[in-house]
Every structure is written in structure tokens, then in C-alpha cells.
Amino acid sequence: MNAITQAERSFDHEWGRIQNSAHQRTIARELAHKRQLESVYVTSLHQLSDSEFLIGAFVPQSNQYINDMRLGPQDVTLSLVEIGRQIGIAVSHEFLGVPHGHAFILDDMRFEPMPAWHSIDWRTAERLWVHMTVRDCKLGAEHELVSVRAEGTFYVGEQCVCRQSSGWTVQPQHRYLRLRELARLRHVRRPPVPQGDEPPLAGGFRVRAHASAARAVIEDTLWVSRTDHSFVGTLRVERDNRFFFDHQNDHVPGLLVLEGMRRLALDVASRYRRYDGEALLREMEVDFTSFAELDCPVYLTARPAGQPDVMGPPERLHVEARQGERLVASSRFLMA
């Protein structure tokens, strides 16, 4: 059942009003945890039932920071992942009783483009509908919401373009600040991470990362292992990039880590057989383990699952993000 049919059944005579107003303006910045209005991409929130919601959103076309990071006109993955993140936060505040000021920590995310994705002209397809279903909510000792798991189906008109699911933890500000304090203490007690231009990779050689975007999220040089076909890149953390640093952060944003891992996976896969970058990705799964701090490099390591074929890209890639020996995030990519 598509999102519009679901909404019509739930709202009946109100559907016309919702349809006409759903994309006229964005939601409040506070609901999306954004400081700049230009960084808010969700336009409406409607509750269908206790666990189902219909959300309007738009794909940003004039945001300089996003445009500079795109691999091409069809590369809107980062935008849609961010829309999914904003939806989870906004629905939690608006309908699940989470007070403003609470912190949200993304635990994991799965993203799957559908076949219609590649037939859509994303230069003109701006309006989205997202049908979100909350699958699980966990409550704390005082019946406060502490974690949520939800999934969303994204539509352009009546065409399903992708599915996204994620889990996140909700914490009051004082608990979050304590968590960050403990994370920083563990970070400074670990052996220092090398600050030179050589990541921890023995027996390797350098190659140039494929130049593909005006604003890169990984550094220009990759290191390639001679023994296990692994590639190591360094995450580029630019604090003047207002897409990731819309407001002050005391750590590397998880979405930047995610995008760095995706870009490295696309780069590695394209070395075996060159496609348009976005057409390579069939599925992406990311698990976040710890915060990435701002004072030392984040190294990304991509390894094909199994022996890669020189005539085609590896079907599966595993990518990890680390600071020193500490795992920040791990991901799995299914390639076309």
C-alpha cells in the first residue's frame, strides 16, 4: 500500500487540506535539531495511528554544501539519509513525548534504494512523502522514552524510491554530557594516534582517490594493502561545512562518518569496474559504536568480502571507521 493511499484512509476528508499544505513550509528548526532554517528539509508531520506517520519533505536543490558534495545529479543519498534522521527526531518530539533539549544518538541505519530511484530525475523531483512506522519503543525506569526503532518508505508521487530503517537512543542533556565526558576521558587515556600522513597500514602503496565532487569527504590519498585488497582513506573533517556542522559539535558528526564510508565504498568498487557512482549501491548498513573525537584522524578501511573479480566490482564491501584502535563505526555495502 503506498503512502498516499494510507493517508487517504486515515484522514478521509482532511486529506485535501493535508495534501495542499504539506510542502508549503518547513517545520520548526527545534524539531529537527538545526540552527539554520536552510538545513531543515522536513515540511509536515501527520499522525496516522499510534505507530504510523506521514511526513512531507523536500530534496534540497540549492544548498551549496550539499551540491558541492554530490557525485552527480542523481546522487541524493546523503540528502535522503539526513531527511530520515530529521524525521526520527521530529516525530519523537512531536508525537512520542520526548522533551526538547534531549539528545539523540544514532545507533544504526539501513538504507536501500528501490528500482524507481534510477528512473527519477532528481534535478526536478523535489517533493517527497515518507511513510514512517515505529516498530519498537523502549521505556526507562520512570517510563521515559530511551530508544526507538523505526522504518520509513520514501515516495516521489506514488513511486517508492527507497527504504530506510534506523535505531536511536534518547538521553536527557545531563546524561548525554556525562556520556561525552566519559568518552573523552577514555579517548585521552589511549595511546596517541599518529598525526603524520601515514595511516596504520603495513606493506601498502598509495593511490589517488577518484576526484568526483567539488567538496570531498575523504582525503585525496588512499593506501592500498598488497596482501588483503584493503583500502585505507582518511576522513576529511571541515568544520566550515555547514551541512555537517550546522551547529557547534564537540565530536565528528555521525553522518559525516557514514558519508565517508559510503564514498570510500563507491571509490573502491569503481576501481574494479567503472559505473556511475550512485548506480553501484544496492544496500547500505551502518552500526555506530563510539564517538569520533575532533582532535585526531578518523581512518576508513574498506575490504571486499571474498576475492574481488577484476572483471567486475566486489558484490559486498565491509568498511570500518577507527581512531587508533577504537572502532567508531562499521558498515556493509551491497553493490550492483
How much of the sequence is in beta strands? 25-35%
* Count of beta strands: 13
Largest sheet: 13 strands, antiparallel
CATH topology title of the largest domain: Thiol Ester Dehydrase, Chain A
What is Rg? 20 Å
Weakly predicted, low-confidence segments: 10-15
When the domains are counted, the total is 2
The CATH homologous superfamily of the largest domain is termed: Hotdog Thioesterase
Residues in helix, %? 10-25%
Record the strand order, biggest sheet.
1-2-4-5-6-3-10-13-12-11-9-8-7
| CATH class call of the largest domain | Alpha Beta
The helix/strand series, from N terminus to C terminus, equals HHHEEHHEEEEHEEEHHEEEE
Gross CATH architecture of the largest domain? Roll
Average pLDDT, rounded to a whole number, is 85
Please work out how many helical segments DSSP would assign: 8
Assembly status: single chain
InterPro entries: AfsA_hotdog_dom
Protein name: A-factor biosynthesis hotdog domain-containing protein
Domain A-factor biosynthesis hotdog: 33-112, 223-332
